[in-house]
């Protein structure tokens, strides 16, 4: 069984957050709540951890990762954001949306979509990842905790710890997770495109949805 770290979902304990961030900085892979579903997370520059996520999920080298950021100022470091897109981000973050944007040179090429040079960016509205990001002071590389052959993400942290034994360093127990991933919106063109309808209500962003 992977280590289960109990963290209060509303008022995260600083000591526990520090433990988790230490694991991430040392190359560890964690499962954590995002406000939508649980996700796998690791250090942004850690290729080995990224490969471990691919093995867990059995995805190919073109699998899209998301950078989970703490605020809008951090987004500008890793993505090119036009004025209209910035206004949209300001209105709908933090929240259950992932935005596809053009990547800057700060994003390692292995994290970008290999054909389009884009990156998924998200600012969560859950206290646990926000506390982790504040302590870490840089984004977390992330992917939804969806096991091979399954259509819904794992929701029970104890079950995750059992099933991910030997594959992750820790599972954060922040309570039961949801089954809806974030809504994915492409902001790389002149108009917003809905790529995946998830927890976030896209009707106020994409006409006709």
Explained architecture:
By secondary structure, the protein is of the alpha/beta class. The chain has a single domain, classed as DHBP synthase. The chain contains six helices and eleven strands. It has helices spanning 14-25, 47-57, 72-78, 83-92, 127-136, 157-163; strands at 3-6, 30-33, 38-43, 66-68, 79-80, 97-103, 118-122, 140-144, 170-173, 183-186, 193-196. Strands 1, 2, 3, 4, 5, 6, 7, 8, 9, 10 and 11 form an eleven-stranded mixed β-sheet that branches. 42% of the residues are buried.
List keywords for this structure.
single chain, 209 residues, alpha/beta, DHBP synthase, 11-stranded mixed β-sheet, 27% helix
Secondary structure elements and their pairing?
Layout: E1 3-6, H1 14-25, E2 30-33, E3 38-43, H2 47-57, E4 66-68, H3 72-78, E5 79-80, H4 83-92, E6 97-103, E7 118-122, H5 127-136, E8 140-144, H6 157-163, E9 170-173, E10 183-186, E11 193-196
Parallel strand pairs: 1-9, 2-9, 4-7, 6-10
Antiparallel strand pairs: 2-3, 3-8, 4-8, 5-6, 6-7, 10-11
Helix pairs in contact: 1-5
According to CATH, the homologous superfamily is DHBP synthase
Q: Number of DSSP strands?
A: 11
Shape: globular
Number of domains: 1
Are there runs of 5+ residues with pLDDT below 50, and where?
Answer: none
Outline the biggest β-sheet: 11 strands, mixed
Helix content bin: 25-40%
